[in-house]
Amino acid sequence: MIWLIFLFSIDPRYHTAEEIAYEIDSIANDYSTITVLDTIGYSTVDSLPIFALKISDNPLLDEDEPSILYIGGHHAEEILGIEICMYMISDLLTQYGVDSAATYWIDNREIWFVPLMNPEGQGVVMTGLDTIWRKNKRDNNNNGFFDLTYDGVDLNRNYDFYWTEGGSPDPPDEFYRGPYSFSENENRAIRDLAFREEFTFCITYHSARYGLTEVIYYPWHWSGGYSADYPFLRTVADSIAKRILRDSGVGYYTALPGEGLEGNARNWLYGVCGTFTFCIEVSTTTLQPGWMVDGICQRNLPGAYYLLERVEQGGITGWIRDSSTLQPLTAEVIVQGYYDPTLPPRRSNANYGRFYRILKTGTYTVEIHKPGYVPLRYDSIIVANEQMTELNVTMRRMGGETIAPAGQKKIRVSPNPTNANVLIQIDPALNLSSLSIYDIGGRLVKNIQNPARSLLWRGTDEKNRNVATGVYWLLGQGENSTVTQKVVIVRELGFW
Questions:
Q1: What letter would DSSP give residue 481?
Q2: Structural domain 411-489, CATH architecture
Q3: Which secondary structure element, helix H or strand E, spans residue 231, and what is its range?
Q4: For strand 470-478 and strand 482-489, is the pairing parallel, antiparallel, or unpaired?
Q5: Which of the listed CATH numbers 2.20.28.120, 1.10.3570.10, 2.60.40.1120, 2.40.50.200 matches domain 315-395?
Q6: Spatial distance between the Cα atoms of 148 and 417, rounded to a whole number of angstroms
């Protein structure tokens, strides 16, 4: 069998991976006082570097500032997003000290770019081998050769968030999700960066070969419901969309909630990390003529820069510290009414105890809790238009006793969340003298002296009245230790 390969020429306006590496290294050298270049990983097959560039006035320090991330090139053929990232990097740096807005952002933000997440896949496109290739080059059939008909993983289906619900299990499929979640080096590089930097906002750039174009997707809708932060995500997405003019020059981008049940970057970053993430489908197709690229980049800048403003315009921020030591605490921050107990907690960061909750103008109830500490509740927190409300708090340890080391002595509860009965199982080594149940405001709900190793709490208080929907804390106290466990009561189980 004779294979005929037709090579197509890609307009030289588009960067190759080698050109990106050279340019971004030169940028880091030329602007060394406000940038730092990091290699966050290497591609799965060809071991090509995946670069991340940080722009900030003290780039070598982790400052108490909000972080924003821009990602290009998940899909190999979608090279317009790469160009937007490179264009934005150049624009920000050349405007520093010249433009007041750009200077303020760089002085008061930590701005991160991963311009090319999929360098080996992009190489397939840029060499003209296959200009509609979207995956990386994973050797799915383990034959030692790159096979266009069988190899590769769709990197935007490889994140560990409902991974089995999205993408395809079939390796030849262009939406192949990989052998397991986070199987690909490229995805693990983004995962580790996200965990380390705890971004408030992210834009991941794409461009559609088919389906809707010039659209912004945000998390999410499924089963007739929406994400817990849907009202705020929608408002931000709408604001981004109305700032990006369509290629035709008529009208602006459209914002829509995306599907939640698939393992893409948008859903994982929001669902697991709490980052408000937006997928922008740039332009009307994946490969535009080179003469159009600068215009597309310029039209996308206002939407991208909006996030650098929005991060301090409407919401609640503050730090959480230990009341005795004043050391920063990683504590869960709940905005009542906008909380999904099925997702990982939205927490303050470890270095500063800082948290950001993006909201709209209104009045909110905020709950803060951490195992071993007395929970806090703040009613009637007012968020004014285009302002961040400061909420700096200290938390007091429960009783001041030694907290049992994690992973050793435990209280286990199931099911959790629940709408009624809770089975409580206590590690015998704890030898508890009492088990107390508190609501999120720190009020005692029930006290059990000399609790059995296994007991049933029926979701009632001392007077046998049903407790309300909410978060409750079990506080077990023994002679030499104190342990805590969270329980979520939801009276009508369903979609949160």
A1: -
A2: Sandwich (2.60)
A3: helix 230-241
A4: antiparallel
A5: 2.60.40.1120
A6: 46
